[in-house]
Amino acid sequence: MTTNRSGKHKERLEQIARRVMLERGFAPDFSQDALDEVNSIKETLPVTAVGRDLRNLPWCSIDNDDSLDLDQLTVAIPASGRSVRILVAVADVASLVRIGSQINNHAGQNTTSVYTVGKTFHMLPEELSTDLTSLNYERDRSAIVIDMLIDDGGTLMRSDIYSALVRNHAKLAYNSLADWLEGKKNSLDEKLKAVPSLVENIRIQDRMAQKLMTKRQERGALELQTLEPRAILVDDEVRDLKLDETNRAREIIQDFMIAANDSVARYLHGKRVLFLRRVVRSPRRWERIVEIAAQYKYELPRQPDARALADFLGERKAADPVRFPDLSLVIIKLLGPGEYVVEQAEWDVPGHFGLAVKHYSHSTAPNRRYPDLVTQRVLKAVLNDSTPPYQASELVELARHCTEKEDDANKVERLVAKSAAAMLLSSRIGETFDAICTGAADKGTWVRIFKPPIEGRLLYGYSGVDVGERLQVRLVHTDIDKGFIDFSRVSRRS
Asked: What pairs with residue 477 in β-bridges?
């Protein structure tokens, strides 16, 4: 049975998103009091920023084509030898969003922006997140700068953190920049050509990002590549799913943000202050990861070992790059989710298994994630030698709440994505697809078909199926409102 009622897809997907957000305790809309506070902020904006004036540097943003909430700018400054200073400027959101304000209360309830096919539900009012606290093109903005000296081998030599005034000289997009970096197109983006020295600066950023990534992988960072399908709306109808694939431009931001978050965590750890750490514990289903590696004639140790797992993944990516995203998805499911915990110098807090780092925070996206805003407040208090903004008990509760809401937001986004996928598949009931098992637990067994790349529940024939197993499935049911996509296993005889 299919429930595919007629109607505009985008509008219907937004309605579904709102319903599910409310069910999970989110506030889809801002109160009038919060919106009134935005007007008050606009009337009292500071004329000048405290800190260094770095507006003359060739800062640029690199993000999605349609991103308006710009949290970071980057720039490279050659240093002695072949060392390079990598500067990451993070939007100073804490200066405008105060603890106790209605805007902060809304952000603290949701803890994250929720990105769905029908609508983006911003954590902060759009006049803030896409304007006043966004590092927009050709706008002077206050920022927190993480200034890192990296040698030619990709090792972080030292870092400094300070306030500064910055200016975005070029708003670049992942895909077009990656096409140029990877030699898929010869023509330069007009935004690149318009800024003297930016072309060479981007080349340096690209080179250093690759070195940072290589150094992390040597330490045991996991190289995972997943398929992230995004619904394509044409004339308000879901027409296709497009994969957002990893590319060189995305890797610049990924590796610089990892280095910046590591630097912030190390800095706060050294100051012996309370703050939120981001951790991924040792894999909860390591024994199943060992079994999967054995299927490829690869022996992993019986105890969790990030370096050994990284070597296995590197071997599989080289041997079978086409199917590597499927293996990556399985490993991610088996690793388990990340979480927030409270850092204190004398506490033994686990590191980030997937990134192979001991100290890690979320600090580079304060427009989009509440933990980053919390960390920024703690960081600014240290920089200004002022009273810490949170007590230990408050941070412990924030860590719990932010972890819970992150999981809720992921579920909202996945359900709306599944609703969009159900729209796309609703006319294909009875068709057979190749699939891979992505989840197996008491609550259900899940599979992902390859073309189009959509995940759904294995409703029939799931007995004995485990994560990583390949099988054939038949589409038996879709329900757009509930985001249900149900399959049955196709018998080996049929």
From this structure: 486
Which residues, listed in sequence order, are joined to residue 74 by a DSSP beta bridge?
60, 88
Q: What does the longest C-alpha to C-alpha distance in the chain come to?
A: 74
Q: What are the domain boundaries of the chain?
A: 2-280+351-421, 286-336, 428-489
273-306 tens-digit pLDDT: 999 988 877 677 888 889 999 989 988 888 888 7
Q: 322 to each of 102, 122, 134, 199, 316, how far by Cα in Å?
A: 48, 35, 37, 32, 10
What is the phi-psi region of residue 291: left when phi exceeds 0, alpha when psi lies from -120 to 50, beta otherwise?
alpha
Contacts of 263 (CB under 8 A, 6+ apart): 146, 148, 156, 159, 161
Beta bridge mates, 236: none
> Tens digits of per-residue pLDDT, 47-79?
555 689 999 999 999 998 888 889 999 999 999
Second CATH level (architecture) for the domain 428-489? Beta Barrel (2.40)
Distance CA 147, CA 213 (A): 18
Q: Which two tokens stand for residue 169?
A: 């000289």
pTM for the whole structure = 0.86
* pLDDT at residue 22 in the model: 97
Structure tokens at 70: 């710009």
